[in-house]
């Protein structure tokens, strides 16, 4: 590759030894690694944030099992393009008796229902092995018929150690980077700018290094920030700016600023962002950042998502604006978000604790003989529809996971819970 090829592309590994991160998926002995090494690869979807290695993993996989590889992007491909590629792949396989080809579709979430339908027959009949890559939840963006025929693997953002390892590998192994004496004094600016995106990290490094005229380049936080600010257009080589803007949008709503929210919303709309992506992020925020402080927020956000899915542009921009300004103007609470996090942490710590006998169902005589459900008190049999009984395993009895936030609605919930549970949970 010549120097006009971006550093991220030049550093794309072609085997697992050079593949940084995702060890839980493709590390030695993991299920996917064993599948690949066996030579049998089912259709699958890689779901993860930008720069987490989805495309690279697909290329490594195809090379590892020595199969023909066809690559299309859902951004600029239509139904005809999909059918043409499938026809070409299957014709080649039949003509040369090659192994079943792999069809890799980048950003598969951008395909419409009809485009995804055009893949079904080839995948069902085993003419191609489909590998899709998406930054969006495939449960929402991939049609059920296609999703049911694919294994879904979740890729995580790269850790700080992974990103630092990538920087040093690029400095030491890339033909053009090696011509400079690169010394890393600080990493924070590069890592913060990358947002965990390996592609963005390497292309930013290339920008910083190529802008230095001397043979020695000392990387510091100050120097990186100065270079990036001086060259914003070149820095955003692969169009990830919209991830920064969605972050600003969410933080404006979380910060109760409807003006900031509607400005960043306008930026996304003018930039051609997927409107369902915006609506989905507001739906998540309505529960994560508002929750029981205003339960209506979740209802409005869900209705917004449904409306945007039905009504196209430009009318849907009004619906998005209504929802964004309402969410930004709403009282905030992350108590529900913190509650499930605390409960999951307890599950990971204490494991599969037994369900107390009185909470178990007893549909058979044997279960009744074992006293399943014997001491359960049915709350509706009591005057206030409340029974003071234990609902947690004995080992963690009295553990409080949900702590209502300091807002009018949740303070009312706190008073109710305190009236029922007294000092048991210290409300």
Report the sheet-strand fraction. 5-15%
The level of helicity is: 40-55%
DSSP helical segment count? 21
Radius of gyration: 26 Å
Largest sheet: 5 strands, parallel
Q: Which strands sit side by side, in order, in the main sheet?
A: 2-3-4-1-5
The assigned structural class equals alpha/beta
Indicate the low-confidence ranges by residue numbers: 233-239
Explain what this protein looks like in three dimensions.
With 427 residues, this protein is of the alpha/beta class. Helices cover 52% and strands 7% of the residues. The protein contains 21 helices and seven strands. The strands form two sheets. A five-stranded parallel sheet has the order 2-3-4-1-5, sandwiched between helices. α9 (160-173) packs across α11 and α15 (258-270) runs antiparallel to α18. The radius of gyration is 26 Å and the shape is globular. 29% of the residues are buried. Mean pLDDT is 85; it is low at 233-239.
């Amino acid at each position: 590759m010549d120097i006009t090829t971006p550093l991220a592309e030049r550093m794309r590994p072609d085997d697992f030894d050079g593949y940084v991160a995702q060890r839980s998926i493709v590390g030695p002995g993991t299920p996917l690694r064993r599948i690949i090494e066996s030579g049998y690869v089912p259709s699958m979807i890689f779901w993860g944030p930008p720069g987490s290695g989805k495309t690279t993993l697909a290329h490594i996989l195809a090379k590892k099992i020595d199969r023909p590889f066809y690559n299309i992007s859902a951004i600029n491909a239509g139904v005809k393009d999909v059918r043409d590629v499938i026809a070409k792949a299957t014709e080649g396989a039949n003509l040369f008796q090659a192994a079943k080809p792999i069809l890799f579709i980048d950003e598969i979430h951008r395909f419409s229902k009809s485009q995804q339908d055009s893949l079904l027959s080839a995948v069902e009949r085993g003419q191609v092995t489909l590998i899709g890559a998406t930054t969006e939840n495939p449960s929402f963006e991939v049609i059920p018929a296609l999703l049911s025929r694919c294994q879904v693997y979740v890729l995580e953002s790269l850790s700080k150690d992974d990103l630092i390892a990538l920087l040093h590998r690029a400095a030491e192994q890339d033909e053009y980077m090696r011509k400079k004496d690169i010394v890393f004094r600080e990493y924070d600016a590069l890592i913060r700018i990358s947002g965990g995106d390996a592609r963005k990290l390497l292309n930013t490094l290339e920008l910083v290094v190529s802008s230095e005229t001397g043979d020695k380049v000392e990387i510091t936080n100050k120097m990186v920030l100065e270079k990036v600010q001086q060259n914003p257009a070149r820095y955003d080589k692969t169009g990830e700016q919209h991830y920064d803007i969605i972050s600003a949008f969410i933080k404006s709503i979380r910060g109760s600023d409807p003006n900031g929210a509607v400005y960043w919303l306008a930026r996304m709309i003018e930039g051609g962002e997927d409107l369902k992506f915006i609506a989905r992020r507001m739906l998540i925020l309505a529960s994560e950042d508002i929750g029981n402080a205003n339960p209506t927020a979740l209802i409005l956000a869900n209705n917004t998502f449904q409306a945007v899915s039905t009504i196209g542009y430009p009318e849907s921009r009004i619906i998005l604006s209504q929802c964004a300004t309402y969410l930004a103007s709403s009282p905030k609470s992350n108590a529900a978000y913190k509650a499930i996090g605390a409960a999951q942490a307890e599950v990971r710590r204490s494991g599969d604790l037994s369900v107390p006998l009185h909470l178990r169902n007893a549909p058979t005589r044997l279960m009744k003989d074992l006293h399943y459900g014997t001491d359960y008190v049915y709350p509706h049999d009591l005057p206030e529809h409340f029974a003071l009984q234990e609902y947690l395993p004995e080992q963690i009895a009295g553990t409080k996971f949900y702590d209502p936030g300091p807002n009018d609605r949740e303070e009312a919930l706190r008073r109710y819970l305190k009236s029922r549970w007294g000092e048991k949970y210290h409300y």
